[in-house]
């Protein structure tokens, strides 16, 4: 590109090239050349190289933020339209239930069962709606430099009693040389807690959950592994799908929230699972030097001022 610019004496704008760095990393770069002239003769060149991957991430994150902003506005506008009728249904179902206790009528047992179904379904709808609002609501991310090992230790403390009751052993393999990352400890704790509790439910008659951390290139990696029943191919394909669940009392929103939280931290979440052999989740979070979160916040402030 440089040679062609000199040869044709023409500037090159916005060429995308794959560059290999000395450490072996492959970087997608946008390269621009600008020829410098003295007395109508080319005397040099200004070469600019921009990390296109970072620019793409910034754009994608901004678009994702705008999308969830629309969802949050929609959720707020319809909340009363949905929840108020459900509240009325719950109240009147309870009134009917109380009045039936003092009335002798035919098929009273069948009516009581129907009322129970109605009340349970209203509760289930309320739970699903609340979960949807939790997903749609834009929560201010409280970014701090945090030690991910400390966050995982908090999760272990929260589930330790349940692990004892289920005869589940929790093993840890935390790296001592782990770097701090920018993150919201409460949101990340929610992700890890959700995965660990799902692992507990996949383990029958005792088992082991292993939690580990390590630095992996430009990222910090968290691993949560269980030796439970594993997932079928069908479940694996739909795991992060909104409202998909295999639990009779589940809302099917937990893993969707987990993925959104990790993506909001510029991270990735993936898993491997085999039926009868357990599941391993890997959560990758960027080093402080590689996060785009601070840039995204700056863009949001600029957009609001505009």
Which helices and strands, and how do they pair?
Layout: H1 2-8, E1 12-20, E2 26-38, E3 41-51, H2 52-100, H3 108-136, E4 144-146, H4 148-165, E5 168-173, E6 181-183, H5 185-202, E7 207-216, E8 219-226, H6 233-238, H7 254-264, E9 268-274, E10 278-286, H8 293-305
Parallel strand pairs: 5-7
Antiparallel strand pairs: 1-2, 2-3, 4-6, 7-8, 8-10, 9-10
Q: What features would you describe in this structure?
A:
This protein is an alpha+beta fold and 306 residues long. It has three domains: 2-53, Complement Module, domain 1 (Ribbon), CATH 2.10.70; 56-136; 144-294, Heat Shock Protein 90. It has eight helices and ten strands. The protein has a five-stranded mixed sheet with strand order 5-7-8-10-9, covered by helices on one side. It holds the Pfam family HATPase_c. Its EC number is 2.7.13.3. This is histidine kinase.
